[in-house]
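Structure tokens please, single chain.
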Amino acid sequence: MKTIEEYMALPYRMEIIPDVEDGGYTAWYPDLPGCLTCAETMDGIIANAQDAKRAWLEAALADGIEIAEPSRETVPADYSGQFKLRLPRSLHRTLSLHAKQEGISMNQYCLYLLTKNDAAYPPRKGMA
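Here you go.
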């Protein structure tokens, strides 16, 4: 088993997503399910992402969770990172209120919810 410093040194791919509507950034590590953070500035998101990665790795080691090695897989060009979603006004309102309570944009809040849920259901081997 690797140490926390050995895991921190591995080249995990980090994705930074700007929130074009409300400002700020969200960062996540695709190989570390549920590891994401947000910040208002680019400097802040990089620092927060490193902190989130360390906290995620420490928790996984403490709980005996298997930590995947960084993948060499790249995201195909046909995935833009955007999609439209229609939802009931009541859900829109609730999501907006929760985002305000957390002090983040609704886009960042929805990304957090999607990532959290997606981490609970990792893709099966062989799925494209």
